[in-house]
Amino acid sequence: MRQLPEPSRKRLVQLAKVLEQHRCGEALTLTSEKLGELTGWTQHTIRRDISHLGIRCGSPNGYPADTLLAAIYETLGIAAEQERRHACCIVGLGRLGQAFLSGELFSASPFVLAAGFDKNVNRIETLKTAFPLYPQSRMRGVIAQGAIEYALLTTEDADAPAAARQLIDCGIKGIVNYTAAVLPRGEQTLIENVSPITALTNMLR
Length: 205
Prior knowledge:
By secondary structure, the chain is an alpha/beta fold. The protein has 10 helices and 8 strands. The chain has helices spanning 6-23, 32-39, 43-51, 65-76, 78-82, 95-98, 121-126, 139-145, 160-169, 196-202; strands at residues 29-30, 63-64, 86-91, 111-118, 133-135, 150-153, 174-177, 190-193. Helix 6 (95-98) links the parallel strand 3 (86-91) and strand 4 (111-118). The protein is elongated and about 60 Å long.
């Protein structure tokens, strides 16, 4: 997998989603101007990100969507990763965590929810899910046995740092942190801080 600047990598992942949405099974060519309209990025940013792909599929009429999408998949290793399922878990089964329990969000993705954890044993016993729920104290054994790679963190804000440390100690590859606590990136564990409140605060003008 080619090493790219992190901002470019994140934009290329989003660009792949845009291309998936607009190709509709037909041959389609998109100019950098059109891609800018679809993403909100400048044409210069789009062309610079595409330059990391090491391809020459551009023309005055634009980029062939299928060719560009295939290049993004290959460069980011997405195609290979989509061929297998990646086990994920949820840590924190309050109202936010429960919103993910149906698993519908992951139905068309290479990710599958394999386990849920919460420190409240009563909550675990009453919730109905398609996958097993466990006390947080059993996290290490369950993650190892289930080969769980990624985690959604939806605990109370005050509990997030300790829960993240547990996940890191268990060898989790990546954590999507939905809490308002800002968690630092680990040496081996990637962390995405995606609190809705933080995102809304960033929009204040």
